[in-house]
Design brief:
Mean pLDDT: 82
Number of strands: 13
Order of helices and strands: HHEEEHEEEEEHEHEHEHEEHH
Low-confidence stretches: 1-33, 254-263
Bound molecules: guanosine-5'-diphosphate, zinc ion
Shape: globular
Structural class: alpha/beta
Helix content: 10-25%
Number of helices: 9
Length: 352
């Protein structure tokens, strides 16, 4: 098997070092477990689902003339030596690029995990040590889907999604579906404020196919968190982007019931676009990331506020009641949209 862009040789050195320091002549089987797996037999994959202590790993095909992710999924356990690593965040998460040794027809061991480029996470509840609960590893962007109608777009909720994306340092794309049901010009007016801030806004229809090529272009070779309220057409859009995916309608569902516990497990769908296009279904994203935002930090996640923040008189200004607030001055001058400022104040006060 060919060497890859991940610089496998270094990993071998590291492995031998670790194994060397840990090798002890105690108990049978101990040494056997620590023998490094032959690095040339390790195969690359991506974790697409977590099931308790097992992970479904989609294997990357590096052999054929069309490299990318095929359909081979192996059920993997985490190798003992990895479990000994002391980490403050989740050891293996959906979205991680992993290297596995395989056994049997469909099983494997996760031998190592590549460094994460990004994470969608939240503070682990009930701990005061900085431990990150990684919900998704390596997301590239958040695609927030709303409907132009049925249901009517709820812009406060959109703002909340955008804050979560920004708090996780992820770019966001806004996707407005069911565009064939409305007067497109009026809908574009409604969302113009987001275009002005700098968010890409796509106008699409799963029903008629309008805008689907733009959506494919946005998704191509990235891991996208696909989110939005239920009923806006997220599953329909994915089915339309890739006929044959056969996602049950309503499969990607954001729980709207307040106070209901949503499962935190993410799940990746591979799309047959490019080499590695994935869409993540992460229930409950609306609630993520807002726990640990301090009141004087929230303004940083309203991207159009950024230019004004340095000019507030108080560095910990919450842009609410403080004198000489540059954000409020910008709202009064019409440079920041009143509706966005109102959203900000609602979130600041913990209102829906
Ligand atoms: P999800 O909950 O966001 O996954 O939404 P679904 O994909 O389950 O779609 C909800 C409903 O909206 C279904 O009845 C779909 O048939 C319908 N729907 C989805 N996309 C469109 C669209 O572009 N136009 C119209 N008119 N209806 C759509
Ligand atoms: Zn201020």
């Amino acid at each position: 098997m060919a060497r890859t862009r991940y610089g496998r040789s270094n990993d071998v050195d590291e492995y031998e070092q670790r194994a060397g320091t840990r090798q002890r002549p105690t108990g049978k089987g101990r040494v056997k477990e620590l023998r490094p797996p032959d690095p040339d037999t390790l195969i690359e994959g991506i974790v697409v689902r977590a099931r308790g202590h097992h992970y479904d790993v989609l294997v990357r095909d590096t052999v054929t003339t069309h490299p990318g992710y095929g359909t081979e999924i192996r059920m993997c356990e985490v190798r003992g030596r990895l479990l000994q690593e002391k980490r403050m965040d989740t050891l293996v998460a959906v979205g991680d690029t992993v290297w596995i040794s395989h056994y049997g027809a469909d099983k494997g061991h996760i031998e190592r995990v590549d460094e994460r480029r990004s994470v969608l996470s939240r503070q682990r509840p009930y701990t005061n040590v900085p431990a990150e609960d990684v919900i998704l590893a390596n997301p590239d962007q958040v695609v927030v889907v709303f409907a132009a109608t049925q249901p009517e777009p709820h812009l406060r909720m959109l703002d909340r999604f955008l804050v979560v994306a920004a708090a996780n340092k992820l770019p966001a794309v806004i996707c407005i579906n069911k565009i064939e049901l409305v007067d497109e010009a009026a809908t574009r007016d409604l969302f113009q404020v987001y275009t002005t801030i700098g968010y890409p806004v796509l106008y699409v229809s799963a029903e008629t196919g309008i805008g689907l090529d733009d959506l494919r272009g946005v998704l191509l070779d990235r891991i996208s968190v696909f989110t939005g309220p239920s009923g806006v057409g997220k599953s329909s859009l994915l089915n339309a982007v890739q006929p044959g995916l056969n996602l049950p309608i309503g499969a990607l569902r954001e729980s709207l019931q307040k106070g209901q516990h949503t499962t935190r497990a993410a799940h990746l769908f591979a799309l047959a676009l490019g080499e590695s296009t994935f869409v993540a279904d992460t229930p409950g994203i609306r609630e993520l990331g807002l726990y640990d935002i301090e009141p004087d930090e929230l303004g940083f996640f309203f991207l159009e506020f950024l230019d004004y923040l340095p000019d507030c008189r108080y560095p910990n200004c919450t842009h609410d009641h403080e004198p000489d607030c540059a954000v409020r001055a910008a709202v009064e001058a019409g440079a920041i949209a009143q509706a966005r400022y109102d959203s900000y104040i609602r979130l600041l006060r913990g209102e829906e």
